[in-house]
Protein backbone atom coordinates (compact mmCIF):
# COMPACT_ATOMS: atom_id res chain seq x y z
CA UNK A 1 0.00 0.00 0.00
CA UNK A 2 2.85 2.39 0.81
CA UNK A 3 4.48 1.75 -2.59
CA UNK A 4 1.14 2.31 -4.32
CA UNK A 5 0.66 5.64 -2.52
CA UNK A 6 4.19 6.72 -3.45
CA UNK A 7 3.51 5.83 -7.07
CA UNK A 8 0.32 7.89 -7.08
CA UNK A 9 2.05 10.84 -5.39
CA UNK A 10 4.31 11.19 -8.41
CA UNK A 11 1.53 10.79 -10.96
CA UNK A 12 1.92 14.19 -12.58
CA UNK A 13 1.97 15.57 -16.07
CA UNK A 14 4.97 17.88 -16.43
CA UNK A 15 4.56 20.08 -19.50
CA UNK A 16 6.43 23.05 -20.91
CA UNK A 17 4.68 25.93 -22.62
CA UNK A 18 6.71 28.46 -24.63
CA UNK A 19 6.40 32.17 -23.97
CA UNK A 20 7.26 34.15 -27.11
CA UNK A 21 8.50 37.70 -27.50
CA UNK A 22 7.51 40.15 -30.23
CA UNK A 23 9.98 38.60 -32.69
CA UNK A 24 8.49 35.10 -32.18
CA UNK A 25 11.54 33.92 -30.25
CA UNK A 26 11.14 31.86 -27.09
CA UNK A 27 11.65 34.12 -24.07
CA UNK A 28 10.97 31.45 -21.44
CA UNK A 29 9.06 28.26 -20.77
CA UNK A 30 6.21 28.17 -18.31
CA UNK A 31 6.41 24.79 -16.62
CA UNK A 32 3.16 23.22 -15.49
CA UNK A 33 2.91 20.24 -13.16
CA UNK A 34 -0.56 18.75 -12.89
CA UNK A 35 -1.63 15.75 -10.85
CA UNK A 36 -3.64 13.17 -12.77
CA UNK A 37 -5.48 12.08 -9.65
CA UNK A 38 -9.13 13.05 -9.35
CA UNK A 39 -9.79 15.51 -6.54
CA UNK A 40 -12.66 17.79 -5.57
CA UNK A 41 -10.12 20.32 -4.33
CA UNK A 42 -8.14 21.80 -7.26
CA UNK A 43 -5.71 23.60 -4.95
CA UNK A 44 -4.85 20.27 -3.28
CA UNK A 45 -4.03 18.80 -6.68
CA UNK A 46 -1.75 21.74 -7.49
CA UNK A 47 -0.01 21.44 -4.13
CA UNK A 48 0.75 17.76 -4.70
CA UNK A 49 2.02 18.46 -8.21
CA UNK A 50 4.15 21.41 -7.11
CA UNK A 51 5.73 19.39 -4.30
CA UNK A 52 6.54 16.59 -6.73
CA UNK A 53 8.00 19.00 -9.30
CA UNK A 54 10.47 20.69 -6.95
CA UNK A 55 11.60 17.40 -5.41
CA UNK A 56 11.32 14.28 -7.59
CA UNK A 57 10.90 16.37 -10.74
CA UNK A 58 13.91 18.61 -10.07
CA UNK A 59 16.02 16.68 -12.58
CA UNK A 60 13.47 17.40 -15.31
CA UNK A 61 13.55 21.11 -14.46
CA UNK A 62 17.33 21.06 -14.81
CA UNK A 63 16.99 19.52 -18.27
CA UNK A 64 14.47 22.20 -19.24
CA UNK A 65 16.99 24.87 -18.24
CA UNK A 66 19.27 23.48 -20.94
CA UNK A 67 16.59 24.40 -23.48
CA UNK A 68 15.87 27.88 -22.13
CA UNK A 69 17.62 30.38 -19.89
CA UNK A 70 14.44 31.05 -17.90
CA UNK A 71 11.54 29.05 -16.50
CA UNK A 72 8.27 30.48 -15.21
CA UNK A 73 6.74 28.34 -12.46
CA UNK A 74 3.35 28.81 -10.86
CA UNK A 75 3.37 28.63 -7.06
CA UNK A 76 -0.03 27.57 -5.63
CA UNK A 77 -1.28 29.83 -2.86
CA UNK A 78 -0.94 27.19 -0.08
CA UNK A 79 2.74 26.79 -1.01
CA UNK A 80 3.72 30.47 -1.00
CA UNK A 81 5.21 30.25 2.49
CA UNK A 82 6.44 26.66 2.16
CA UNK A 83 10.18 25.86 2.28
CA UNK A 84 9.93 23.83 -0.96
CA UNK A 85 9.80 27.07 -2.97
CA UNK A 86 13.44 27.73 -2.10
CA UNK A 87 14.45 24.58 -3.97
CA UNK A 88 13.85 26.49 -7.22
CA UNK A 89 17.02 28.22 -8.52
CA UNK A 90 16.40 31.96 -8.24
CA UNK A 91 18.76 32.84 -11.09
CA UNK A 92 16.67 30.94 -13.63
CA UNK A 93 13.16 30.62 -12.24
CA UNK A 94 10.51 33.34 -12.22
CA UNK A 95 7.81 32.60 -9.65
CA UNK A 96 4.24 33.02 -10.94
CA UNK A 97 1.70 34.12 -8.32
CA UNK A 98 -2.05 34.78 -8.67
CA UNK A 99 -3.07 37.54 -6.21
CA UNK A 100 -6.76 37.06 -7.04
CA UNK A 101 -6.68 33.45 -5.85
CA UNK A 102 -5.55 34.17 -2.30
CA UNK A 103 -7.28 35.36 0.83
CA UNK A 104 -4.10 35.47 2.90
CA UNK A 105 -3.41 38.78 4.59
CA UNK A 106 0.37 38.58 4.26
CA UNK A 107 0.64 38.32 0.47
CA UNK A 108 2.47 41.63 0.09
CA UNK A 109 4.87 40.64 2.83
CA UNK A 110 5.63 37.36 1.04
CA UNK A 111 6.14 39.08 -2.32
CA UNK A 112 8.53 41.56 -0.72
CA UNK A 113 10.40 38.67 0.90
CA UNK A 114 10.85 36.80 -2.38
CA UNK A 115 11.93 39.98 -4.17
CA UNK A 116 14.52 40.76 -1.47
CA UNK A 117 15.67 37.14 -1.54
CA UNK A 118 16.47 37.48 -5.24
CA UNK A 119 13.55 35.88 -7.06
CA UNK A 120 11.84 37.47 -10.05
CA UNK A 121 8.07 37.52 -9.73
CA UNK A 122 5.29 37.32 -12.30
CA UNK A 123 1.80 38.27 -11.16
CA UNK A 124 -1.06 36.60 -13.04
CA UNK A 125 -4.54 38.13 -13.25
CA UNK A 126 -7.74 36.61 -14.64
CA UNK A 127 -9.32 40.06 -15.02
CA UNK A 128 -8.20 43.58 -14.26
CA UNK A 129 -4.95 44.08 -12.37
CA UNK A 130 -5.74 47.65 -11.35
CA UNK A 131 -7.20 46.75 -7.96
CA UNK A 132 -3.85 45.20 -7.11
CA UNK A 133 -1.69 48.09 -8.27
CA UNK A 134 0.05 48.25 -4.90
CA UNK A 135 1.55 44.79 -5.59
CA UNK A 136 2.96 45.55 -9.03
CA UNK A 137 6.13 47.11 -7.61
CA UNK A 138 7.23 43.59 -6.72
CA UNK A 139 6.67 42.19 -10.21
CA UNK A 140 9.02 41.79 -13.15
CA UNK A 141 6.18 40.51 -15.31
CA UNK A 142 2.42 41.02 -15.23
CA UNK A 143 0.33 38.36 -16.96
CA UNK A 144 -3.15 39.21 -18.23
CA UNK A 145 -5.68 36.79 -19.70
CA UNK A 146 -7.03 37.60 -23.15
CA UNK A 147 -9.95 35.22 -22.58
CA UNK A 148 -11.31 37.34 -19.71
CA UNK A 149 -10.92 40.86 -21.12
CA UNK A 150 -12.69 42.72 -23.93
CA UNK A 151 -10.51 44.63 -26.43
CA UNK A 152 -11.44 47.90 -24.73
CA UNK A 153 -10.59 46.54 -21.28
CA UNK A 154 -7.33 45.12 -22.58
CA UNK A 155 -6.28 48.51 -23.95
CA UNK A 156 -7.04 50.14 -20.58
CA UNK A 157 -5.03 47.52 -18.72
CA UNK A 158 -2.03 47.99 -21.01
CA UNK A 159 -2.19 51.76 -20.54
CA UNK A 160 -2.30 51.28 -16.77
CA UNK A 161 0.75 49.00 -16.85
CA UNK A 162 2.84 51.63 -18.62
CA UNK A 163 3.15 53.31 -15.24
CA UNK A 164 5.18 50.36 -13.92
CA UNK A 165 8.55 48.87 -14.84
CA UNK A 166 7.18 45.48 -15.84
CA UNK A 167 7.00 43.24 -18.87
CA UNK A 168 3.40 42.96 -20.04
CA UNK A 169 2.51 39.37 -20.94
CA UNK A 170 -0.73 38.11 -22.44
CA UNK A 171 -2.07 34.58 -22.03
CA UNK A 172 -4.58 32.71 -24.21
CA UNK A 173 -3.31 34.30 -27.41
CA UNK A 174 -4.87 31.64 -29.62
CA UNK A 175 -4.70 33.13 -33.12
CA UNK A 176 -2.23 35.07 -35.23
CA UNK A 177 -4.75 37.91 -35.42
CA UNK A 178 -4.75 38.07 -31.62
CA UNK A 179 -0.94 38.05 -31.61
CA UNK A 180 -0.79 40.95 -34.07
CA UNK A 181 -3.43 42.93 -32.18
CA UNK A 182 -1.87 42.47 -28.75
CA UNK A 183 1.57 43.28 -30.13
CA UNK A 184 0.15 46.51 -31.54
CA UNK A 185 -1.16 47.37 -28.06
CA UNK A 186 2.39 47.13 -26.74
CA UNK A 187 2.45 43.75 -25.04
CA UNK A 188 5.92 42.26 -24.70
CA UNK A 189 5.32 38.53 -24.21
CA UNK A 190 2.73 36.11 -25.57
CA UNK A 191 1.52 32.65 -24.66
CA UNK A 192 -1.20 30.56 -26.23
CA UNK A 193 -2.13 28.25 -29.08
CA UNK A 194 -1.36 30.78 -31.83
CA UNK A 195 2.11 29.44 -32.63
CA UNK A 196 0.69 25.98 -33.30
CA UNK A 197 -1.70 27.30 -35.94
CA UNK A 198 -0.78 28.10 -39.56
CA UNK A 199 0.11 31.71 -40.22
CA UNK A 200 -1.40 31.68 -43.71
CA UNK A 201 -0.33 34.56 -45.94
CA UNK A 202 -2.49 35.00 -49.02
CA UNK A 203 -0.54 34.28 -52.19
CA UNK A 204 2.44 32.77 -50.35
CA UNK A 205 3.72 29.56 -51.89
CA UNK A 206 6.03 26.88 -50.56
CA UNK A 207 9.74 27.54 -51.09
CA UNK A 208 11.82 25.28 -53.34
CA UNK A 209 13.34 23.60 -50.28
CA UNK A 210 9.92 22.98 -48.77
CA UNK A 211 8.64 21.50 -52.01
CA UNK A 212 11.66 19.18 -52.17
CA UNK A 213 11.04 18.05 -48.62
CA UNK A 214 7.35 17.46 -49.25
CA UNK A 215 8.36 15.34 -52.25
CA UNK A 216 10.71 13.35 -50.04
CA UNK A 217 8.01 12.97 -47.42
CA UNK A 218 5.80 11.38 -50.03
CA UNK A 219 8.59 8.96 -50.97
CA UNK A 220 9.15 8.02 -47.35
CA UNK A 221 5.44 7.32 -46.90
CA UNK A 222 5.27 5.25 -50.07
CA UNK A 223 5.77 1.61 -49.10
CA UNK A 224 6.89 0.82 -52.65
CA UNK A 225 9.71 3.38 -52.75
CA UNK A 226 13.27 2.08 -52.67
CA UNK A 227 16.20 3.49 -50.74
CA UNK A 228 17.69 4.61 -54.05
CA UNK A 229 14.63 6.80 -54.65
CA UNK A 230 15.00 8.33 -51.19
CA UNK A 231 18.78 8.74 -51.37
CA UNK A 232 18.51 10.59 -54.68
CA UNK A 233 16.11 13.14 -53.22
CA UNK A 234 18.02 13.55 -49.94
CA UNK A 235 21.20 14.19 -51.93
CA UNK A 236 19.57 17.37 -53.28
CA UNK A 237 19.45 18.81 -49.76
CA UNK A 238 22.91 19.07 -48.10
CA UNK A 239 21.47 20.29 -44.79
CA UNK A 240 19.07 17.37 -44.48
CA UNK A 241 21.82 14.88 -45.40
CA UNK A 242 24.14 16.44 -42.83
CA UNK A 243 21.57 16.35 -40.05
CA UNK A 244 20.50 12.81 -40.81
CA UNK A 245 24.05 11.45 -40.87
CA UNK A 246 24.99 13.31 -37.70
CA UNK A 247 21.96 11.91 -35.95
CA UNK A 248 22.53 8.33 -37.15
CA UNK A 249 26.17 8.55 -35.96
CA UNK A 250 25.25 9.94 -32.53
CA UNK A 251 25.82 7.87 -29.35
CA UNK A 252 22.08 7.91 -28.68
CA UNK A 253 21.41 5.79 -31.77
CA UNK A 254 24.16 3.39 -30.76
CA UNK A 255 25.12 1.78 -34.07
CA UNK A 256 28.70 1.22 -32.91
CA UNK A 257 30.18 2.11 -36.29
CA UNK A 258 30.63 5.19 -38.46
CA UNK A 259 27.99 5.74 -41.13
CA UNK A 260 29.53 7.68 -44.01
CA UNK A 261 26.69 8.03 -46.51
CA UNK A 262 22.93 7.84 -46.88
CA UNK A 263 23.30 4.56 -48.78
CA UNK A 264 25.46 3.20 -45.95
CA UNK A 265 22.83 4.24 -43.40
CA UNK A 266 20.10 2.35 -45.26
CA UNK A 267 22.29 -0.73 -45.63
CA UNK A 268 22.91 -0.84 -41.86
CA UNK A 269 19.51 0.25 -40.59
CA UNK A 270 17.23 -1.28 -43.18
CA UNK A 271 14.49 0.52 -45.08
CA UNK A 272 11.97 0.70 -42.22
CA UNK A 273 14.29 2.13 -39.55
CA UNK A 274 15.89 4.49 -42.05
CA UNK A 275 12.51 5.85 -43.13
CA UNK A 276 11.61 6.37 -39.47
CA UNK A 277 14.69 8.48 -38.75
CA UNK A 278 14.62 10.27 -42.08
CA UNK A 279 11.01 11.30 -41.47
CA UNK A 280 11.94 12.79 -38.10
CA UNK A 281 14.89 14.69 -39.57
CA UNK A 282 12.67 15.92 -42.37
CA UNK A 283 9.97 17.31 -40.08
CA UNK A 284 12.63 18.92 -37.86
CA UNK A 285 14.02 20.80 -40.87
CA UNK A 286 10.79 22.25 -42.29
CA UNK A 287 10.88 25.60 -40.45
CA UNK A 288 14.23 27.21 -39.61
CA UNK A 289 12.82 29.89 -37.30
CA UNK A 290 12.80 29.86 -33.49
CA UNK A 291 9.07 29.17 -33.68
CA UNK A 292 9.78 26.32 -36.08
CA UNK A 293 12.28 24.75 -33.71
CA UNK A 294 9.67 24.71 -30.96
CA UNK A 295 7.13 23.17 -33.35
CA UNK A 296 9.65 20.52 -34.40
CA UNK A 297 10.29 19.54 -30.78
CA UNK A 298 6.56 19.45 -30.10
CA UNK A 299 5.95 17.28 -33.19
CA UNK A 300 8.51 14.71 -32.03
CA UNK A 301 7.11 14.81 -28.50
CA UNK A 302 3.56 14.27 -29.77
CA UNK A 303 4.69 11.44 -32.05
CA UNK A 304 6.39 9.52 -29.26
CA UNK A 305 3.57 10.16 -26.77
CA UNK A 306 0.82 9.01 -29.13
CA UNK A 307 2.87 5.96 -30.12
CA UNK A 308 3.05 5.02 -26.44
CA UNK A 309 -0.66 5.72 -26.01
CA UNK A 310 -1.48 3.31 -28.83
CA UNK A 311 0.46 0.62 -27.02
CA UNK A 312 -1.23 1.41 -23.70
CA UNK A 313 -4.85 1.86 -24.86
CA UNK A 314 -7.07 -1.22 -24.64
CA UNK A 315 -8.52 -0.55 -28.10
CA UNK A 316 -6.27 1.70 -30.19
CA UNK A 317 -7.80 2.48 -33.60
CA UNK A 318 -4.42 2.13 -35.34
CA UNK A 319 -1.03 0.47 -34.65
CA UNK A 320 1.60 2.42 -32.67
CA UNK A 321 3.68 3.26 -35.76
CA UNK A 322 0.62 4.85 -37.40
CA UNK A 323 -0.13 6.84 -34.25
CA UNK A 324 3.49 8.02 -34.32
CA UNK A 325 2.93 9.52 -37.77
CA UNK A 326 -0.28 11.19 -36.60
CA UNK A 327 1.64 13.08 -33.94
CA UNK A 328 4.64 13.77 -36.16
CA UNK A 329 2.53 15.40 -38.88
CA UNK A 330 0.06 17.16 -36.56
CA UNK A 331 1.79 20.56 -36.87
CA UNK A 332 2.80 20.52 -40.54
CA UNK A 333 0.41 23.36 -41.33
CA UNK A 334 1.91 25.57 -38.62
CA UNK A 335 5.44 24.84 -39.83
CA UNK A 336 4.74 25.60 -43.47
CA UNK A 337 2.03 28.26 -43.19
CA UNK A 338 -0.33 26.34 -45.46
CA UNK A 339 -3.74 24.69 -44.89
CA UNK A 340 -3.31 21.12 -43.66
CA UNK A 341 -5.80 19.67 -46.15
CA UNK A 342 -3.70 21.00 -49.05
CA UNK A 343 -0.44 19.68 -47.58
CA UNK A 344 -1.63 16.10 -47.06
CA UNK A 345 -3.94 15.82 -50.08
CA UNK A 346 -1.44 14.01 -52.31
CA UNK A 347 0.49 12.14 -49.61
CA UNK A 348 0.31 8.31 -49.72
CA UNK A 349 -0.65 7.96 -46.05
CA UNK A 350 -3.33 6.09 -44.13
CA UNK A 351 -6.66 7.75 -45.08
CA UNK A 352 -7.63 7.90 -41.41
CA UNK A 353 -4.55 10.00 -40.61
CA UNK A 354 -5.20 12.25 -43.57
CA UNK A 355 -8.82 12.77 -42.55
CA UNK A 356 -7.99 13.46 -38.89
CA UNK A 357 -5.24 15.93 -39.76
CA UNK A 358 -7.61 17.72 -42.13
CA UNK A 359 -10.13 18.25 -39.34
CA UNK A 360 -12.57 15.41 -39.96
CA UNK A 361 -13.90 13.66 -36.87
CA UNK A 362 -12.99 9.99 -36.84
CA UNK A 363 -11.51 7.46 -34.42
CA UNK A 364 -8.20 9.38 -34.33
CA UNK A 365 -9.83 12.68 -33.40
CA UNK A 366 -9.75 12.10 -29.61
CA UNK A 367 -6.00 11.47 -29.74
CA UNK A 368 -5.34 14.77 -31.47
CA UNK A 369 -7.66 16.37 -28.94
CA UNK A 370 -5.56 14.84 -26.17
CA UNK A 371 -2.26 16.43 -27.23
CA UNK A 372 -3.97 19.74 -27.94
CA UNK A 373 -5.56 19.75 -24.48
CA UNK A 374 -2.21 19.09 -22.79
CA UNK A 375 -0.60 21.88 -24.80
CA UNK A 376 -3.39 24.26 -23.80
CA UNK A 377 -3.51 23.32 -20.09
CA UNK A 378 -7.05 21.94 -20.41
CA UNK A 379 -6.48 19.31 -17.75
CA UNK A 380 -10.11 18.46 -17.04
CA UNK A 381 -10.52 17.57 -20.72
CA UNK A 382 -7.30 15.53 -20.61
CA UNK A 383 -8.76 13.42 -17.81
CA UNK A 384 -12.04 12.92 -19.65
CA UNK A 385 -10.30 11.79 -22.85
CA UNK A 386 -8.01 9.36 -21.03
CA UNK A 387 -10.98 7.85 -19.22
CA UNK A 388 -13.03 7.55 -22.41
CA UNK A 389 -10.13 5.80 -24.16
CA UNK A 390 -9.63 3.54 -21.12
CA UNK A 391 -6.03 4.64 -20.58
CA UNK A 392 -4.40 4.71 -17.16
CA UNK A 393 -3.95 8.33 -16.08
CA UNK A 394 -0.78 7.47 -14.19
CA UNK A 395 0.59 5.56 -17.18
CA UNK A 396 -0.20 8.44 -19.51
CA UNK A 397 1.66 10.90 -17.27
CA UNK A 398 4.71 8.64 -17.29
CA UNK A 399 4.53 8.18 -21.05
CA UNK A 400 4.29 11.94 -21.57
CA UNK A 401 7.43 12.51 -19.50
CA UNK A 402 9.33 9.73 -21.27
CA UNK A 403 8.27 11.12 -24.65
CA UNK A 404 9.61 14.56 -23.72
CA UNK A 405 12.96 13.03 -22.76
CA UNK A 406 13.10 11.16 -26.05
CA UNK A 407 12.29 14.27 -28.11
CA UNK A 408 14.93 16.26 -26.24
CA UNK A 409 17.50 13.50 -26.85
CA UNK A 410 16.70 13.55 -30.58
CA UNK A 411 17.54 17.25 -30.69
CA UNK A 412 20.77 16.78 -28.76
CA UNK A 413 21.79 14.01 -31.13
CA UNK A 414 21.87 16.47 -34.01
CA UNK A 415 18.39 16.10 -35.45
CA UNK A 416 17.83 19.85 -35.18
CA UNK A 417 21.22 21.58 -35.49
CA UNK A 418 21.60 25.28 -35.88
CA UNK A 419 21.76 26.22 -39.53
CA UNK A 420 25.27 27.65 -39.34
CA UNK A 421 26.63 24.23 -38.33
CA UNK A 422 25.79 22.62 -41.65
CA UNK A 423 28.75 22.86 -44.03
CA UNK A 424 28.08 24.47 -47.36
CA UNK A 425 24.62 25.63 -46.38
CA UNK A 426 23.38 29.21 -46.46
CA UNK A 427 20.77 30.27 -43.96
CA UNK A 428 18.99 32.30 -46.61
CA UNK A 429 18.07 29.07 -48.37
CA UNK A 430 15.84 28.20 -45.43
CA UNK A 431 13.87 31.41 -45.46
CA UNK A 432 10.22 31.02 -46.32
From TrEMBL:
It holds the Pfam family HDOD. Residues 206-395 form the HDOD domain. This is HDOD domain-containing protein. InterPro entries: dGMP_Pdiesterase_EAL/HD-GYP (IPR014408), EAL_sf (IPR035919), HDOD (IPR013976), RNase_Y/CdgJ (IPR052340). It comes from the Bacteria.
Amino acid sequence: MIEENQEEAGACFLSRHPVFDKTKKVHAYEVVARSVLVSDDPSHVDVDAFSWMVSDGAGELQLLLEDSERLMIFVPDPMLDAPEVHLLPMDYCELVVSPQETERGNLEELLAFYQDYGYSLALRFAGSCQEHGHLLKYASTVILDLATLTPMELAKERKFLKGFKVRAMLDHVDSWEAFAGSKALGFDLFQGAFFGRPEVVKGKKLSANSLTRMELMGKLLDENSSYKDMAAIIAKDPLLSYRLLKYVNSPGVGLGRTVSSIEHAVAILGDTAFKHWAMMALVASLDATAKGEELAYLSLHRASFLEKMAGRAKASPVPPKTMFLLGLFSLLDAMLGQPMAELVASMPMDPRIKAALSGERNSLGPWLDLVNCVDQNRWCDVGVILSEQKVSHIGAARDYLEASRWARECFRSGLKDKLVEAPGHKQADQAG
